[in-house]
Write a structure and sequence with these properties.
The chain is α/β, with parallel strands linked by helices. The chain has a single domain, classed as 3-Layer(aba) Sandwich (Rossmann fold). Helices cover about 35% and strands about 20% of the residues. The chain has 9 helices and 8 strands. It has an 8-stranded mixed sheet with strand order 1-2-4-3-5-6-7-8, sandwiched between helices. A hairpin with a 5-residue loop joins strand 1 and strand 2. The longest helix has 23 residues. The protein is globular and about 50 Å long. The mean pLDDT is about 95.
Length: about 290
């Protein structure tokens, strides 16, 4: 029996990259693999980047990915389709495919497919929440995985930093702040516009749609004027009322992307994600 995950452990990591698939636009979506160097097999985590659905790539969350991997987790960060190439639900389809693809490939990098979790930041957190809540949605499962057609897209847990848990509330905040680039990002991604409500985690719960409620971690900056703390508090309360487990932690003195800069609160976020993973893995072992 392999040793239990210890969030305080320290491993050297090997970083490599592989191709995942070619998008309809012709862009090759890549994965960056952070592989602990040890006996293993290691628990596995899929990382989904932010960027307002329109920007960034697999490298966006590298400090967090490295920190978690160094504790003994196989972390794989994947590119998502960007909104100018294809609107919602393209990036969610990429995330769903990424879950299935990583389950089928985890053993190649000394990882365990069972108990796979997802980490998402900002718009990547929005995608991660939808993956957790709708793992069997036919639209999200639309990209076939020919090498492993029987693998499903269920995940064991979701960890997020500043997730866009209410897409319309975030759009209204952009209008209030007169942030034209953010307004444009929303209108580029949500086409037709009605999808901003259909693919809205908060409104999915408000509509009492059938959902899967995996354990959820939300880390939120208290000074965030992009995704407001009150919006996260409402979502966390709705998630719990629906029967889910949701840990919401507000980081004092922090804005939307505080984890991009080294500091005590960034270090605290790294430790919080590792501790959350440890709790989920321990619960699975007891089950």
């Amino acid at each position: 029996m392999k040793a239990a995950y210890d969030p305080a452990a320290k491993f050297d990591i090997k970083v490599s990259e592989v191709e995942v698939r070619r998008a309809a636009s012709g862009r090759m979506l890549m994965a960056r693999i952070y592989q602990p160097q040890g006996v293993g097999p290691f628990p596995t985590l899929l990382d989904l980047h932010g960027g307002a659905w329109n920007n960034k790539d697999r490298t966006a969350n590298e400090p967090m990915d490295r920190a978690v991997a160094a504790s003994g987790v196989l972390v794989v960060a994947v590119d998502l389709t960007l909104a100018p190439d294809a609107p919602y639900p393209a990036s969610v389809q990429d995330g769903n495919f990424g879950v299935r693809w990583l389950k089928s490939r985890a053993a190649d990098w000394n990882g365990e497919a069972a108990g796979l979790g997802v980490l998402g930041s900002s718009s990547g957190g929005h995608v991660a929440e939808l993956l957790g809540m709708r793992p069997r949605d036919a639209r999200y499962n639309a990209i076939p995985l020919s090498t492993a057609p029987g693998v499903d897209a269920t995940v064991a847990y979701v960890a997020t930093r500043s997730p866009i848990s209410d897409t319309y509330a975030r759009y209204q905040q952009a209008e209030k702040m007169k942030r034209e680039s953010m307004i444009k990002s929303n209108k580029t991604y949500f086409r037709p516009w009605e999808t901003i409500f259909e693919g809205n985690p908060q409104q999915i719960l408000d509509r009492r749609e059938p959902v899967t409620l995996v354990p959820l971690l939300i880390m939120q900056g208290a000074l965030d004027d992009n995704v407001l703390p009150a919006v996260q508090e409402k979502f966390a309360a709705s998630y719990r009322a629906a029967g889910g487990e949701c840990d919401l932690h507000v980081f004092e003195g922090c804005e939307h992307e505080w984890v991009a800069k080294p500091g005590p609160q960034t270090g605290r976020a790294h430790e919080m994600v590792k501790a959350f993973i440890a709790r989920q893995l321990a619960a699975a072992r007891r089950a």
